Amino acid sequence: MRISSTSVFQDAVSNFNDMQSAISDSMNQISSGNALSSPAVNPAASAQVLVATQAQSVNTQYGVNRGNATSALSTSDGILAGVTNLMQNLESLVVQAGNGSFTTADRSTMAAQFKTSMSQLMDLANSTDSNGNYMFSGSTVGKIPYVASSNGATYQGNQVTQMLQVESSQQVSVTQVGVSIFGNIQVSPNAYFSTPDGGNTSTATMSNGTVVTPGAVTNDNYSVTFTSPTAYDVKDTSTGATVSAGNAYTSGAPIVIAGVQYAVTDGAAPTGTPAAGDQFTVQPGNQNIFQALTNIVNALTQPTATAGQQTNLSNSLSQATSSISKSMNNVLNARDQIGNSLQQLTNLDSVGSTVNLSYSATISTLQDTNYAQAVAQLTQEQFTYKAAQQAFANTSQLSLINMIR
DSSP strand E in 286-344: where? Predict the structure, then answer.
C-alpha cells in the first residue's frame, strides 16, 4: 500500500485539531464550571438537566405566586384591621347615642359622626391593591365594590373570589367577596319584615313581606302611615319620597311596596282598627352595614317628643347594636380565613424551598465540573498533544534518501 506525504500531513492535521478541541473543551469546563457545554458531551445527563431545570422553574413560579398571594392577603388583613377598629368605635357611638339627656342638637351631632364613619367605612370597603385592583369585589377586580345609594350602599361585585395557583394542586383566593364581609347582616329570619311604631294606639298588626315582583325590589326602607282608619300613605324613608298617598285600607288586603307584599290586619277590639297616626316600618331582613348605619342616622334625625318616638329611637339603637355586632363577626371571620391562608402559604414556602434545593443539587451533580477530574484530564490531553507534536516533527523529516544515507 502506498502512503503519500499529503495523506500523512492531512491525518496529522486532523488529529491535532481533535486534540486541540478536546483541550479547549476541558479548559472551558474548568473556566465555566459547566461540564455540559453542549448536549453532545453527555446526551443523557443533558436531558435530565433539562427536565430538572423546567421543574425548578415551575416551582420558582409557584414561589412568586405565593409571594403575591401573601402580599395581597396581608394588605386585605391590614384593611380589615382598620374596619375592626372602626366598628368598635361605632359600637361606642351607639351607646352614646342612647343617652336620654341628649338634645335634638346632640343627636344631630351624633348623626353627623355616623355619616363620617360610614364614609370612612366605604373608603375601606373600596380599597385597592398596589396594582389598582379592588380587593373586596370578588373576581371582578376592576369594578368598584360599593357605590353610595339612598339606602346606604349597593354591592357591585360578584360572589366569586380571584384564585392564584400557589402549588401544583392548591389555589388560594387573593380577593374577598365584599358582601360576605360588609353585608349578610340578618336582622330578621324573614326576607322582609315589619315593625309597628312605638306610638301606635291600635292593636292592628302588619305581616312580614314576601317578594312578588323581584325586578321591582329596591332594598330601601319604607313606612306605612295611616291617615285615617280607612286610608294610609306609603313613604320611602331611605329617600324621603312619598310612594303613594290616600290608599284605601281593607283589613288583610295585600299591600305591595317595591315588589314586596305585606298585609295589615285589624287587631282585637276595641282598638283593633288602625287609628290615624299609626305607623309601620318595613325593611329588608338581610342588610349590609351601610344600610344599618343609614337607619341609625335616620333614627337620630327623627323627633323624640313623645313616648312613642322615644321608643322608636330606643328600638333603632338596639337594632343598630345588633347589626354592628353581626357585621363585626363577619369581619373577624374573614380575618380568620385570611390568617389560615397565610399560614398555608408559609408552610408551602418551606416545602418549596426544600424542593428547590433538591432540584439545584440534582442539576449541580449532573452539570457542574469535577475540577480534580477535569484538571487531570486537561493535563493528560496537553501532554499527549505535545508528545504527538514532537513525534510528528521527528517522523515528518524521514525519507528514503535519508535512510540510504
Answer: 286-287
**The whole model's pTM is what?**
0.74
**Structural domains in the chain (count):** 2
Radius of gyration of the chain (CA): 41
- Cβ neighbors of 291 (< 8 A, separation 6 or more) are 151, 152, 153, 185, 219, 221, 283, 284
- The per-residue pLDDT of the chain, averaged, comes to 86
How many Å is the maximal CA-CA distance in the chain? 156
Tally of CB atoms within 10 A around 346:
11
The SS3 call for residue 140 is coil
Instruction: For residues 339 and 267, state if they share a domain.
Output: no
User: What is the span of the domain harbouring residue 266?
Assistant: 192-284
Residues 268 and 350 in one domain: no
Burial 63-74 (b: 16+ CB within 10 A, else e): bebbebbbebbe
To 5 degrees, how large is the angle CA 320–CA 151–CA 95? 20
334: CATH: 1.20.1330.10
Residue 160's closest CA among 137, 138, 135, 182?
138
- Please check whether residue 215 lies inside any domain of the structure: yes
Among 262, 284, 306, where does a domain finish? 284
Task: Quote the crossing angle between the two packed helices 104-125 and 43-97, to the nearest 10°.
Answer: 170
pLDDT digits (tens, 9 = 90+) for 245-281: 999 999 999 999 999 999 999 999 899 999 999 999 9
C-alpha to C-alpha distance for 197 and 279, rounded to whole angstroms = 5
In a domain, 303, yes or no: no
pLDDT tens-place string over residues 217-232: 988 889 999 999 999 9
The verdict on 182 and 197 lying in the same domain is no
Q: Are residues 129 and 234 in the same domain?
A: no
